[in-house]
Amino acid sequence: MNPFLIELYKKFLYGKITLSEFGEMRYEMNKTSNEEFAGFEQNEWKDFVIREKMLADKKTEIRNNLKFFAGQQSQIKSRGKIWLKIAAVLVPLTLVGSLFLFLNQKVNSNHSFLVEVARGNKATVTLPDNSKAWINSNSSLNFIANSNESREIKMNGEVFFQVFKDKKRPFIISFDDIKIEVLGTSFNVKAYKNRETIETSLVEGSVKISGHHLSREFILKPNEKAIYNRKSNNLTIVQTNNELETAWKSNVLRFDTERFGDVMNMLEDWYDITIINKYPQIENDIITGSFKNEGIESVMDILKVQYNINYTRKGKIVTILPVK
Amino acid sequence: MESDIIKSYLKALNKGSVNAYTTLYDMYADKLYSFSLSRLKSRELANDIVQETFMKIWTMHKAISPDGSFQSLIFKIANNKIIDHFRENINTIEFENYIQYIENEDLKDESIENQLYFDDFIKALNLCKRKLSNRQLEVFELSWEKGLTNDEISKVLNVAEHTVRNQLSLALKSIRSEISKYGVLMILIFENLSEYANF
After folding, report:
1. What is the phi-psi region of residue A293: left when phi exceeds 0, alpha when psi lies from -120 to 50, beta otherwise?
2. What is the dihedral angle through the alpha carbons of A125, A131, A134, A140, rounded to the nearest 10 degrees?
């Protein structure tokens, strides 16, 4: 590499390059062959002094990924049959707050596995490919490993995925009408069968959405949410707040300018209760709120004060009434 | 040049020792990470390079010579990936925006801990764009992401050029003030993520 390019490149490496110098560096770099560039870099690597270490959490995460990868590779060679084995070490990580965990894991003959989470519960599982899934209440997830070429997910409800990076095997979540394809990334999918929309919010990485009713493929960027409407077959992309989208994972129940009626549905799933609304006028009121680890009583008490309603509770049945 | 200790780890690695494998990872991950980061300006990509490189090392663990240089091997595997990402990066308009931002905001001389990386910049930008008005967002995207001049934008949107200039400067001002707050925001995000990890 010529001395002029080397000088510019070093400025670039130290983050001290101006835009016009960068333009020149790019021009020179685009004319430089990979071999020439690699020859220069080899010497740089020899004398390289660490300037910034990995974040401790990331370093541990990748070490665990590598351990898993090494174990998996060995099993492929020695046994040939891997999925059953790994599904058996699948770990439900925790009980959530006072809610008890109801987890139904089955390993069927096609080496897929199914996790069902009942209403009022949540679960965290590690999938056979080392991806992680946080599963919200009243949701299910089916991981299908047909071959070593792809990873396929069928799901209902809401799941947050942290996908294990493996470029050779795309991770695909498919519905009847659309397909969400990812490499390595974290994102939230909300697709309850009884609702009209499939929502995908991206935290990190990138996600591709395609479908036979869609005019083209859509690529999501972090902090964007794609909302697909199953009736109109329309897909819109909006900016979103991921803290809000994924608050449920940390056991925070959060709603932001949502219809009272929708919030009642969320509360039913969250607390495994039935709500009877005898005050239909408030169905379309818009409410905002956030609750962490609170019982249904205290949530209802807050709503009572804030939105001027009355309620009664008998076991699992909550009835909302107008204030007399 | 490598010591006997490393030689013994490499011998164990040949035999399939996962312990030796992760120990070698612990020894070299930071160097590879830092090297990649200075070239790619993205923590996310640098982490990817580390993981992919070490995955490759496992797939060839039986064939690695204990007498060869392990460091050179890491370099050979990683560098092709780094060069590909580097070339792709520097030829995008987003990366040019990033360099321009660093230059204008005079962040060139920031200490390493405070360095704003490309991936942070893109994330911050996406967050900040939410705070813009529709018109500001439109002007900003045409200018920064499509690379149109103010004159071209005024024709596309059918407004006076000084309106474009004003909207753009308002948008940039808002983005600047948001990004300067971003240090704190990043910490919030990390806190949140580690909370999930303990979940």
Report:
1. left
2. -70
Q: Which of residues 110-169 of A touch B (CB under 8 A)?
A: 124, 134, 165, 167
In DSSP notation, A37-64 reads HHHHHHHHHHT----SPPPHHHHHHHHH
Residue of B nearest to A123 (CA): B199
A38 touches B: beta carbon within 8 Å: yes
Q: Is A63 in contact with B22 (Cβ distance < 8 A)?
A: yes
Strand partners, A321: A310
Which tens digits make up the pLDDT trace of A211-239?
888 888 888 888 888 999 888 888 988 88
H-helix or E-strand spanning residue A25: helix A19-31
Beta-carbon separation of A57 and B197 below 8 A? yes
Q: What percent of chain A has pLDDT over 70?
A: 85
Chain-chain contact of B108 with A16 (C-beta, under 8 angstroms):
yes
Burial bucket for residue A128 (CB in 10 Å: 0-12, 13-18, 19+):
buried
Q: From A133, which residue of chain B is nearest by alpha-carbon distance? A: B196
Integer Cα distance of B20 and A126 in angstroms: 25
- Identify the sign of the CA torsion B183, B185, B191, B196: negative
Give the SS3 label for residue B55: helix
Instruction: Provide the pLDDT confidence category of residue A118 given band limits of 50, 70 and 90.
Output: confident
CA B79 – CA A38 distance, rounded (Å): 7
